[in-house]
Amino acid sequence: MVEFIGILSVDPALAQFNPENQPEEFGVEGYQPPVEEINAHAPPPSLVPRLHAVLCNKLTHNNPLLPQIPDTDEYKTKFQQLEQEIDTLRGRIMELLEHALLGDSLAAEFFLLHLLSSVYGRADVMPLGKFSLNLSHCPVTPKYGQLLQVFMAGLLSQSHLLPLSIENMNTLRLCPEKDYTANRLKSGVLQLPERTSLVIDETVLQPGQLEAGGVKNMTALGNLISWQKVEYDFSYHRQDFMANVAVMILSEAKSILPSDCLLPLEAKIMPEDWIAHFSMLESGMTAELLTKIRTYITLAKQINYSLTDELQKIIQDDFVDMRKVDSKSMTVDDFHSLLCTVRLLSLSYLKSTPTQTLWRRAKNMDSERKRRISST
């Protein structure tokens, strides 16, 4: 994401028009560009205002509550203030998330980890830090997904809801495509800014036939979730662009899309009035609390995480022991997911290094998650 500082111009005189009575002007070797291309180069200011940029900055985040540079005194002061009250603040956040997830405390924990996840690097083609969450056994109503996304939009700076219906998959353009007639790039739904939270509501999916475009869109979603990349279609060739989008899937059963973490939701309550249920969240959040939560989420994502030599040895020994007990229940992918869980769990307490207590807690959370999967 880039911040531009400049002069916004909506002066109609800058638009280029091509009246019908204007004499024909031919270009090189008699070629005259089509009207679509001419209009694409200079659309009217009412459609595309002109920004004459004076300065541009690549942003590390887009939260106006925090400065861009972590070394400033203001940034350090806010971090220290939240660090002193992290237990209270985190407990309050868990209450809100648990209410949003119908009383499921374990799901609330994994939901928080998902909100803090972000791609921090890549090992060859593998994105590091992503934590796509698939909540299965969700209520089969479009209202739940819509209201949950609205709740998330209040906490996050960027979020988007994508109902995974047959109609949407067959008709929407998820990946950008080049229009050579108008000589412009047509935007796609997955053309999202960094650190956007994408909620995919699979509960709206009904039996139907996926067309060629629908199959292409499903493939694009799988690539975004697994590899954090979006394919741009230039007709004659395709180009992958790296992404950083946190994806959460709401589904009735296990999703048809891949995910890093599958968790069956165990709802303790099932409200009759969904709007009233989520309105209780809004009434419980003061402006001060909302500011702290928004600041906390951004701060946690910026923490530089590392493992001590002592804890690395403990984790390695635990992995060997778990493999001895049951090699099938602790694969390399399971271990990678567990390491991602303990990393995000540490960040949720604003810690740059995990403790043995947090490592044990991450193992217990993962064990409970697997128990739920096996019992469904």
UniProtKB/TrEMBL annotation:
<dbReference type="Pfam" id="PF09739">
    <property type="entry name" value="MCM_bind"/>
</dbReference>
<protein>
    <recommendedName>
        <fullName>Mini-chromosome maintenance complex-binding protein</fullName>
    </recommendedName>
</protein>
<dbReference type="GO" id="GO:0006261">
    <property type="term" value="P:DNA-templated DNA replication"/>
</dbReference>
<dbReference type="GO" id="GO:0005634">
    <property type="term" value="C:nucleus"/>
</dbReference>
<dbReference type="GO" id="GO:0003682">
    <property type="term" value="F:chromatin binding"/>
</dbReference>
<dbReference type="InterPro" id="IPR019140">
    <property type="entry name" value="MCM_complex-bd"/>
</dbReference>
<keyword id="KW-0539">Nucleus</keyword>
<comment type="similarity">
    <text>Belongs to the MCMBP family.</text>
</comment>
<feature type="coiled-coil region">
    <location>
        <begin position="72"/>
        <end position="99"/>
    </location>
</feature>
<keyword id="KW-0175">Coiled coil</keyword>
